[in-house]
Amino acid sequence: MCLRVVLFYGTGVFDVKKWDTLRQGETGAWVGIIGNLVMAVVKISVGLVAGSQVMLADGVHSISDLFGSAAVLVGLRVARRPPDGCHPYGHARAESIAAKLVGIFLLLAGLQVGYSALATVWAGVIETPDLLALWTALVSVVVKETLFWYKVRLGERIGSRAVVANAWEHRSDALSSVVALVGIAGARMGYPLLDPIGALVVSVFILGMGWKFVREATDRLMDGAVEESLLRLMKRVVRGVRGVEEVQDLRARYMGPMVLVDVKIGVNQELSLSDAHEVAHRVKDTLMAEVKQVSDAMVHVDPVEPGVTVPHGTKEGAEKISL
């Protein structure tokens, strides 16, 4: 009767170089903070002076963006902290918490904008906005769309969901400025009701974006599974590692912007313990090198006959060795 050995390999230590990319996210957050602060002050001031409800709503939206960028900045700074005694897996979930806060800010802003618009319609006192509001809305569209493309490319490059969420805040602000532009133009053409109606449309859009980010961030905080396309990529990478006979199971979860992997592989049962350990080592190193999101991997090794797939759950009583 041959001795079956189940081997686990995983250091539990993150690749520090990968986390350094989050510094770039902090720069993007500062750009967003400064840009949103300027636009919020300008739009609210113009909304008050020009008498435009939809411009005021747009200004409130920019304030939510400002708080969102600040939340992303704090979250990314905390996420870059290395593991310690109290947080052995690091602080990466701070990034997901930041993304959730961004969504909450959007929800609150959407409710406030919608309430103000409905109150204006109910009161029946609707002013015709000044031309200054029209030009301000046009400038806002250009500025916020520029910030959107800058942030979304940055977030995708460094793999930060919080930065991408913040980018979509800019896009939602740009679209709300488009609605403001239409509402103000319509009001000046003799349809003043279009101004508060435009504010209502903006509020619905803000609420939709806020709910989307709260739901996604909550899923990540609850260890929701990664995308199927990413799982297929990781399985393909593991199968290509020399010494791997089969991939019996592979699970992954997000830890902030990074991914933690648990993979179960089969290796030739004739291999020595040290050789099996080397295969596990190669699997981990290859995953971390070829899949940029992967920051750590736990590799579980089972002995199998070459070319024969061993069903999961048939190794009760196997001796387990942790390295």
Determine the structural class based on helices, strands and strand pairing: alpha/beta
Largest beta-sheet details: 5 strands, mixed
The CATH superfamily of the largest domain is known as Cation efflux protein transmembrane domain
**Average pLDDT taken over every residue:** 76
Stretches with pLDDT under 50, minimum 5 residues: 1-16, 310-323
How do the strands of the widest beta sheet line up side by side? 2-3-4-1-5
Please summarize what this structure is.
The chain is an alpha/beta fold and 323 residues long. It contains nine helices and five strands; from the N terminus they run βααααααααββαββ.
List its salient traits:
323 residues, 64% helix, Alpha-lytic protease prodomain-like, 2 domains, 9 helices, Alpha-Beta Plaits, 5 strands, 5-stranded mixed beta sheet, alpha/beta
